[in-house]
Amino acid sequence: MTRVGRPPQDPARQVERANRILDAAAELIGRWGYDKTTIDDVAKQAGVAKGTIYLHWRTRDALFAALLRRERVRMLEEVRRSGPATPRELFAGIAAGLLRRPLLKAALVGDSEVLGKLVRQKRHGPGAVNPGEALDAYYAALIRVGAARDLSGDHVLVIGSIIYGFLTVPWMLPGGPPPEERLAPLLADMVERAIGTGRALPDDAVDAVERATLDYLDSMTYVARRKLADSLSSPRSV
Description:
This protein is mainly α. The chain has twelve helices and no strands. It has helices at 11-32, 39-46, 50-56, 60-81, 87-100, 102-109, 112-115, 118-124, 132-144, 155-168, 180-195, 203-232. The longest helix has 30 residues, at 203-232. It starts with 10 loop residues before the first helix and ends in a 6-residue tail after the last helix. Mean pLDDT is 85; it is low at 123-129.
């Protein structure tokens, strides 16, 4: 028999309740910001006891790390469903996904108004993105078929700088940023110009680029899902 207030023994019910709590946290952090959102607030919004949240996550930071991980999974799944076949389509999709998801954008650019003190922790903590290994394999595949320039290992720096720049600098300009639907294509164009060879590819190379692009997304999504599953597993399951 399950005790009152404890996470359900059924794993599916545990995940359902965890997601309901995360839904509540997402709404409140979007409204008030991380620093002003308390566990009491989240519990009330989710319709659960405060103690129930601590049965899923030991700390408030762990709860919000799970929220960021869930946002990342949903963004990557959305990009994967669009079926990007080229680096241009891939990075346009990722940029558009980040712009549509305020929490991910805040984590990327260090928006303290939204994430408060969590900003510093999420850059290097459990919610941080580390695409280096997967991106290295993807970029190596692009080089092999002549779809990317050899940047002597600096491809992560180049691509990361372009993405970060496009998601931060426009808001600092006197006239403000252009419409967000313009930013993603502009960003993708800059990535293509920075890493591309400018040469037309034969059909077999085009097919190889598409496979490599989808393999990269699948790899990133797999890792993101695994981390999210870890975050949704109750530390005190019965």
